[in-house]
Amino acid sequence: MSLDEREQHEVARARQMLKAANVWDVEGDLQALVDRFLERNNRARALYEFKLAVSERCNRIPLGHIVGAAEFDQLPLVIGSGVFIPRQHSTIIHKWLDKQQLDEGSRVLDLCAGSGAIGLAIARRRPDLVVTCVEFDDVAAHYLKRNIARMACKGIKANAVQADIRDTAMFVPFAGQVALIVANPPYVPLGLELLPEWSSHHPQASVYSGGDGLELIRHIVELAVAVLVPGGWLIIEHGVDQASAVCQLFQQHSFTQVEVIIDPAASDTTGIAVMTVGRLRDDC
């Protein structure tokens, strides 16, 4: 880093502060903060903002909310307070998709889309698919639409729909037409203790989902039966300890080839990357 002595001192001080605050990736966060706040022309202003940002991170404000951006699958997304920050865990979906042979023009739904990370990454990898990102929350829908417009400048195309997945009437236009549904819904049981980044500083509706964490997952599985084409695929991310329950939900709703996939490469110290995949029976 090409920093002067004063800045180097503040970076060293920040490193100790972040360690004392039990931030799990001190060097990664520190480098991101330096890149965002110190490598600018107005060095005095940059240093002042850097110190403010370090203070916020030590208060366990999520890094993405501080810098206003998140990198996901080579996509520079804009995010902010009030929207879930995409995690690298979700790349487990795209690794699976890279091995599939979905027909050109197939329709894809990204449910509980948040800022649009998963859907936009699918659109980047498979521009021949028709991707629609569905989000209910007003704040998240704002960032979703902003990111779709932002990525359109790079030729990445997706659609946005603001809808509640519990309102099946909103999905009548998709009935029997969707080849793939992907979802990273809230799946944490109410009352479960989490790191403060999620328990205190993320929107609760994007994290928690009923007493067992499966409330929205149940709605997604039921909705999938209505909108998927026969033989269509459903992918849902969830907690590793929920795998058995999610598999049962799939099997109870006419899904076959049900498989739980765990990806250590996409996992980190905040959790394990795990999802369940299933295919709707051809006779549905």
UniProtKB/TrEMBL annotation:
Substrates-to-products reaction catalysed? L-glutaminyl-[peptide chain release factor] + S-adenosyl-L-methionine = N(5)-methyl-L-glutaminyl-[peptide chain release factor] + S-adenosyl-L-homocysteine + H(+)
Q: Name one GO biological process term.
A: methylation
Q: What is the designated name of this protein?
A: peptide chain release factor N(5)-glutamine methyltransferase
* Record-linked PROSITE patterns: N6_MTASE (PS00092)
Q: Where is the Methyltransferase small domain?
A: 96-187
Q: Name one GO molecular function term.
A: peptide chain release factor N(5)-glutamine methyltransferase activity
Q: Which species expresses this protein natively?
A: Pseudomonas auratipiscis
Which InterPro entries does this entry report, sorted A to Z? Answer: DNA_methylase_N6_adenine_CS (IPR002052), HemK-like (IPR004556), N5-glutamine_MTase (IPR050320), SAM-dependent_MTases_sf (IPR029063), Small_mtfrase_dom (IPR007848)
Listed EC numbers: 2.1.1.297
* Assigned keywords, A-Z: Methyltransferase, S-adenosyl-L-methionine, Transferase
